[in-house]
Amino acid sequence: MAEQLSLAAVRGALIREEDSIVFALIERARRPRNAPAYYAPAAGADDGQSLAEFFVREAEALHAKAGHYEKPEDVPFFPQDLPSPLFPTKGYPKVLHPFASSVSVNDAIWKMYFNELLPLFTVDGDDGYYAETVALDFACLKALSRRIHYGKYVAEVKFQDAPQDYSPLIHAKATDALMNLLTFKAVEEKVKKRVEKKARIFGQNVTLEDSADKNEGSADDSECKVNPKVLSELYDRWVMPLTKDVEVDYLLRRLD
Amino acid sequence: MLMPMASLYTYLLICNATLLLLHRCSGLSLDTVRDFLTREEDTIVFSIIERAKYPLNLPAYEVPAYFAGSRHDASFAELFVRDSEAVQTKAGRYQNQEEIPFFPFRVPFILSPSYNFTSDLYPAAAFVNLNDEIWSIYFNQFLSLLAKNGDDGNYAATAASDFLCLQALSKRINYGRYVAEVKFRGDPQNYTTLIRNKDKDALMKLLTSESQEDVVKRRVQKKAMVFGQNVTSNGPVETGDSNSSQASFKVDPSLVYKLYDQWVIPLTKQVEVEYLLHRLD
Q1: Closest residue of B to A2, CA-based?
Q2: Closest residue by Cα to residue A137 from A214, A71, A52, A80
Q3: What are the structural domains, with CATH classification, of chain A?
């Protein structure tokens, strides 16, 4: 997150994160469902973990040693017993309230990704590439988690912009009223359309023969590597609501 | 070295029979190979765009002072890749022949459910890879062309992103083994003669199609433009202040052209030649 906390900077980060999410889903869609990667327990795993859970835990331990979970937008899925950074980490400007790092909706993201989203954009089948599959899942989870937890910055910017509107609601713990104040339907529609457009453009088959304007994407969504409607549904049903949950969770403790 | 006619005839008969058998057993063909390479272009472009999100972040590539001279005489990035590959190995990543790790790691057991992978490569030649060269080119030549100067402290994300680029490049370049296998099966007599003579130049010539290479390079450059553009919600897509401006693309498309022209395609062909030289072992 940029040193300067501003609406423009936060918006820029969210927009850039859309590309990362679309790329990650396109890459995951290259592999079929590969259900055995999600069976628990995987052979030899502790505590009945699936291969997916084993991989994410191990990858996060490595990321933690590398100093990855220092910023409020980088939130681990398995925070218990994460090792400390082995390398000195570069400090970053603290623009959020100190407890921001404890706000996490990763449990909801995990469930949503495996139970609801995966079936929507992966084909049935099993090609045996389980390790690659879970690595690709981890990339999707990271991108989604990052985008959603940017909500902390969104909330801070909005609060600073109009503390007189937010403070009474925070004191009253009026969750619904806060949610209403944070919601801008017009902006959300724009985001959904843009992310759908990105899926259409980034997921098309690019060839040299096409004279049609490749910038707009092919007209036929069925040729896209990920159905663009999946992206707008993903943002509509989960990404934007969960981001707002993060915003509300953050704001509720903003005056502590 | 001339074989007696009878043995040559028998030899060719056996070759053709084996060829027919192999074609029925494996899914490997010129089409599947081309499809794979074409799809891998997208992966490579995506991974490069994602790496370009971060500045150069040089501290990730220096050996930390307190490690220098010790057993752990490796940069942060190298340690990150080694550890990442260890996790992937435990998860069963390198069981099929398609991917070869940069730092092979032995594990006592693999967690992944087992799967019967078909093996299309000639066993004695399957080991051929150019991972050392890929590593060196990526860090010493390519990165400084790709990433802007600067340091944002996101070393872990940077290294993770480098790892994805390296994996994609390694997979594509070492796929030369499959390209070579398909080409060998398509013309075994010709290739066998050249291999027996260890004629590297002639092999390279036989493997090279400049027109096809030109198509690949222009296509991957186009992909860099399409995937690296800034997509906005309304109206035409932003491609910068002027139509010819490269500045607003996330990655300079001509750099991606250069990547394929100077490194990816030549290294792949090097793998093909090396593989073929071991094809009759």
Answers
A1: B152
A2: A52
A3: 7-252 (1.10.590.10)
